[in-house]
Sequence to fold (427 residues):
Amino acid sequence: MKIGIIGAGFTGLSAGYNLVKDGHQVTIFEKDPHPGGLAIGYQEKGWEWSLEKHYHHWFTNDESVLRLAKDISYDVLIKRPRTSAYVNGTIYQLDSPLHVLSFPELPLFDRLRMSAVLASLRYNPYWQPLERINASTFLPKVMGEKAYQMIWEPLLVNKFGSYAGSVSLAWFWARIKKRTASLAYPKKGFLPFAQAVVAAIEKQGGKIHFSSEINELKDTAQVHLVVKHGKESTSYTFDRVIVTTPSFLFLKFALQLPESYKAKLAKLKGLGAINIVLRLKNDFFSDNTYWLSICDKNSPIMAIVEHTHFMDKKYYNNEHLVYLGNYLPHTHRYFTLNKTELLKEYDQYLRKINPSYEKSLIGFEMFQAPFAQPVIPVNYSKMLPPFETPLAHVFLANIEQVYPWDRGTNYAVELGESIARIITKQS
Ligand SMILES: Cc1cc2nc3c(=O)[nH]c(=O)nc-3n(C[C@H](O)[C@H](O)[C@H](O)COP(=O)(O)OP(=O)(O)OC[C@H]3O[C@@H](n4cnc5c(N)ncnc54)[C@H](O)[C@@H]3O)c2cc1C
Fold:
């Protein structure tokens, strides 16, 4: 079959890779000049490797994406970087049961209680009963108010803002269940990895058009796409089309969709992401922390991630690279600030953690993604859009259908595999 795919993020790339292997004629359209979507990377002058615009790693149990890397003979590095939490103005390593049990900010009883809750979630295989429960009502009841208010409430609030109270326990379960202490990373970065998948697709006859944005999709006996490349527009026709963009973008270019379906998709809520990447001459964290969760509801930053405490700084011209991460509604005023104004918002807080970081600043960049994190409320399975859409030859496979797992490139690859299987079965 002749198949068009909208988007060269990991869902589109995985769908394309599997469909060309199944013998289909595949064409992928990507509005950006490079593949990778939310996991896209960039490279400063003098760097040997590229860096993701938004921090990225894999867990060692991210089987689908690790299998894809193996399939195309792409090297993956595995390391065990330090994960910490910032609590009451101090950084605590908190990445093993032993660290949780010896965490000095909580009395022993609360530590034991919290450890028992985390362990029971981790070893529970059933997410379905949990999706009916609200994380913010369940967690303080079972692990105790003290532990919840000190660690988990600030994390939920910093990540989901005004949606924090509606997040389902199934989302929390997925985060605890999938976490591994060791992490994986594609050698040279996610961009070269995405480019290697593109090369594998092209080798089998697939086509990828970059800087090509879908402006219009119409389904009659076949699917017609109007694609904008620069100032030109071209029409293409396919037997099947897979849409991998977030749902709100699908609604923009598929005007034929019935109102009832549009209303259903419009109920799905999501947050945008803003990341600043600092390039420093020296370490930001003196204790080799890679990931710092900020357990403070008043912090202007959600997490600080020192990438070069995971991957060696030698690949980045010996620069120390640090993300200042935030998830926010796309209407938040931070989205209107330029990079200097945003860093100014963070500056005072950053100085509390590293008073002299600014002296070692080489430069910094800011990256924004208007839709980056779906909000998963209770009973999300009832809201989950199916792959099939009201348009007979058009399928939806996007970040909002990754459930019960939290979004990630592993699940994007899994989604691409599932949609390819469905289409191949129909052919
Ligand atoms: C801050 C942050 C941190 C993250 N951390 C991790 C992590 O550590 N590990 C991990 O595995 N994942 C992580 N993720 C999630 C991961 O990046 C996503 O889940 C995954 O990349 C989603 O892939 P996708 O292909 O489904 O969607 P996307 O990556 O969004 O791909 C959709 C593609 O469609 C293109 N597009 C949109 N509109 C059009 C149009 N009209 N025409 C043509 N093309 C169009 C877009 O440019 C994009 O390339 C993170 C994400 C963010 C934002």
Observations:
- The longest helix spans residues 409-426.
